[in-house]
Specification:
alpha/beta, 6 helices
Protein backbone atom coordinates (compact mmCIF):
# COMPACT_ATOMS: atom_id res chain seq x y z
CA UNK A 1 0.00 0.00 0.00
CA UNK A 2 1.01 3.58 -0.54
CA UNK A 3 0.56 5.72 2.57
CA UNK A 4 -0.08 9.47 2.29
CA UNK A 5 0.32 11.95 5.15
CA UNK A 6 -1.52 15.16 4.37
CA UNK A 7 -2.12 18.59 5.87
CA UNK A 8 -3.06 21.92 4.36
CA UNK A 9 0.13 23.37 5.85
CA UNK A 10 3.60 22.50 4.58
CA UNK A 11 4.97 23.70 7.93
CA UNK A 12 2.76 21.23 9.81
CA UNK A 13 3.95 18.43 7.57
CA UNK A 14 7.60 19.35 8.18
CA UNK A 15 7.36 20.23 11.86
CA UNK A 16 4.70 17.81 13.12
CA UNK A 17 3.94 14.98 10.69
CA UNK A 18 7.51 14.18 9.73
CA UNK A 19 8.82 13.97 13.33
CA UNK A 20 5.81 11.85 14.37
CA UNK A 21 6.67 9.21 11.79
CA UNK A 22 9.43 7.96 14.12
CA UNK A 23 6.68 6.41 16.26
CA UNK A 24 5.46 4.16 13.43
CA UNK A 25 7.09 1.03 12.05
CA UNK A 26 6.91 2.43 8.52
CA UNK A 27 6.97 6.05 7.38
CA UNK A 28 4.40 7.41 4.92
CA UNK A 29 5.42 7.15 1.28
CA UNK A 30 4.13 10.61 0.38
CA UNK A 31 3.77 13.87 2.30
CA UNK A 32 1.34 16.22 0.55
CA UNK A 33 0.01 19.67 1.37
CA UNK A 34 -3.63 19.46 0.25
CA UNK A 35 -6.95 21.17 0.87
CA UNK A 36 -9.27 18.60 2.47
CA UNK A 37 -12.27 20.28 0.88
CA UNK A 38 -10.83 19.80 -2.64
CA UNK A 39 -8.67 16.68 -2.61
CA UNK A 40 -6.35 16.39 -5.63
CA UNK A 41 -6.82 12.63 -5.95
CA UNK A 42 -8.67 10.54 -8.51
CA UNK A 43 -12.02 8.96 -7.69
CA UNK A 44 -11.82 5.68 -5.74
CA UNK A 45 -8.13 6.08 -4.85
CA UNK A 46 -8.01 5.05 -1.17
CA UNK A 47 -8.84 1.93 0.82
CA UNK A 48 -8.59 3.71 4.19
CA UNK A 49 -8.73 7.36 5.20
CA UNK A 50 -8.03 8.47 8.77
CA UNK A 51 -8.54 11.98 10.19
CA UNK A 52 -7.70 13.10 13.72
CA UNK A 53 -9.12 16.33 15.17
CA UNK A 54 -8.93 18.25 11.91
CA UNK A 55 -12.51 18.50 10.65
CA UNK A 56 -13.38 21.33 13.07
CA UNK A 57 -10.67 23.42 11.35
CA UNK A 58 -12.44 23.35 7.96
CA UNK A 59 -14.55 26.30 6.79
CA UNK A 60 -17.01 23.93 5.04
CA UNK A 61 -16.67 20.46 6.62
CA UNK A 62 -19.50 19.05 4.52
CA UNK A 63 -17.18 19.39 1.49
CA UNK A 64 -14.70 17.01 3.14
CA UNK A 65 -17.40 14.36 3.45
CA UNK A 66 -18.32 14.75 -0.22
CA UNK A 67 -14.62 14.33 -1.07
CA UNK A 68 -14.32 11.27 1.19
CA UNK A 69 -17.19 9.61 -0.66
CA UNK A 70 -15.50 10.44 -3.97
CA UNK A 71 -11.93 9.28 -3.23
CA UNK A 72 -12.75 6.23 -1.08
CA UNK A 73 -12.96 2.92 -2.93
CA UNK A 74 -16.00 0.66 -2.52
CA UNK A 75 -15.27 -1.48 0.53
CA UNK A 76 -13.05 1.29 1.91
CA UNK A 77 -13.21 2.73 5.40
CA UNK A 78 -13.10 6.29 6.70
CA UNK A 79 -12.32 6.76 10.40
CA UNK A 80 -12.23 10.12 12.15
CA UNK A 81 -12.09 11.50 15.68
CA UNK A 82 -12.95 15.10 16.49
CA UNK A 83 -14.35 17.45 19.11
CA UNK A 84 -17.99 17.89 19.99
CA UNK A 85 -18.84 20.99 22.02
CA UNK A 86 -22.45 21.47 23.15
CA UNK A 87 -23.82 24.94 22.47
CA UNK A 88 -24.35 25.54 26.20
CA UNK A 89 -20.62 24.94 26.83
CA UNK A 90 -19.28 27.18 24.04
CA UNK A 91 -18.51 29.87 26.62
CA UNK A 92 -16.16 27.45 28.37
CA UNK A 93 -14.05 26.76 25.27
CA UNK A 94 -14.51 29.87 23.12
CA UNK A 95 -11.63 31.87 24.61
CA UNK A 96 -9.16 29.03 24.03
CA UNK A 97 -10.53 28.50 20.51
CA UNK A 98 -10.33 32.21 19.68
CA UNK A 99 -6.79 32.46 21.09
CA UNK A 100 -5.65 29.47 19.04
CA UNK A 101 -7.33 30.81 15.90
CA UNK A 102 -5.58 34.16 16.26
CA UNK A 103 -2.21 32.74 17.30
CA UNK A 104 -2.00 30.16 14.54
CA UNK A 105 -4.22 31.79 11.91
CA UNK A 106 -6.54 28.79 11.74
CA UNK A 107 -10.25 28.07 11.71
CA UNK A 108 -11.21 26.78 15.18
CA UNK A 109 -14.89 25.83 15.20
CA UNK A 110 -16.69 24.48 18.26
CA UNK A 111 -19.04 22.00 16.59
CA UNK A 112 -22.05 20.78 18.57
CA UNK A 113 -23.73 17.41 18.03
CA UNK A 114 -26.63 19.18 16.25
CA UNK A 115 -24.15 20.86 13.90
CA UNK A 116 -22.44 17.51 13.21
CA UNK A 117 -25.83 16.12 12.18
CA UNK A 118 -26.38 19.12 9.91
CA UNK A 119 -22.94 18.65 8.30
CA UNK A 120 -23.76 14.99 7.63
CA UNK A 121 -27.13 15.87 6.13
CA UNK A 122 -25.60 18.55 3.86
CA UNK A 123 -23.11 16.02 2.50
CA UNK A 124 -25.54 13.06 2.41
CA UNK A 125 -23.08 11.20 4.65
CA UNK A 126 -24.73 8.29 6.50
CA UNK A 127 -25.87 9.40 9.96
CA UNK A 128 -25.23 5.96 11.42
CA UNK A 129 -21.49 6.45 10.92
CA UNK A 130 -21.51 9.28 13.50
CA UNK A 131 -20.96 8.10 17.06
CA UNK A 132 -20.58 9.98 20.32
CA UNK A 133 -17.35 9.55 22.23
CA UNK A 134 -17.94 9.95 25.96
CA UNK A 135 -14.82 8.70 27.72
CA UNK A 136 -12.46 11.56 28.64
CA UNK A 137 -10.27 9.41 30.91
CA UNK A 138 -7.29 10.17 28.63
CA UNK A 139 -7.31 13.81 29.78
CA UNK A 140 -4.30 14.97 31.80
CA UNK A 141 -6.46 17.33 33.89
CA UNK A 142 -7.67 15.08 36.77
CA UNK A 143 -10.98 16.94 37.17
CA UNK A 144 -11.86 16.55 33.49
CA UNK A 145 -10.75 12.90 33.55
CA UNK A 146 -13.06 12.18 36.51
CA UNK A 147 -15.92 14.07 34.87
CA UNK A 148 -15.25 12.04 31.71
CA UNK A 149 -15.56 8.78 33.65
CA UNK A 150 -18.94 9.90 35.02
CA UNK A 151 -20.19 11.06 31.60
CA UNK A 152 -19.12 7.74 30.07
CA UNK A 153 -21.65 5.87 32.21
CA UNK A 154 -24.65 8.11 31.46
CA UNK A 155 -27.25 7.10 28.81
CA UNK A 156 -26.02 7.99 25.30
CA UNK A 157 -29.25 9.79 24.32
CA UNK A 158 -28.79 12.09 27.31
CA UNK A 159 -25.10 12.64 26.64
CA UNK A 160 -25.46 13.32 22.87
CA UNK A 161 -26.75 16.83 23.23
CA UNK A 162 -25.75 17.75 26.75
CA UNK A 163 -22.29 16.38 27.52
CA UNK A 164 -20.47 14.72 24.61
CA UNK A 165 -16.68 14.67 24.79
CA UNK A 166 -16.17 14.11 21.09
CA UNK A 167 -17.30 12.23 18.04
CA UNK A 168 -15.94 9.32 16.14
CA UNK A 169 -16.88 8.51 12.59
CA UNK A 170 -16.64 5.03 11.17
CA UNK A 171 -17.87 4.83 7.58
CA UNK A 172 -17.70 1.71 5.42
CA UNK A 173 -18.29 2.58 1.78
CA UNK A 174 -20.51 -0.01 0.16
CA UNK A 175 -20.84 1.22 -3.43
Amino acid sequence: STVYATDVSINSLKNVALPLTSFFPQKPDVFAAVDAEELPFKDKTFDVIFAVTMIHHLPHPEKLFLEIQRVLRPGGVFIAIDHCVPSHFRWLFSKVANDRAQKFGIQEDLISYSRWLEIFRLSSFPLDSLQIYTNAAYQSNPLIAILGRVIHWLPVNFVKHLLPVGIQIVYHKIV
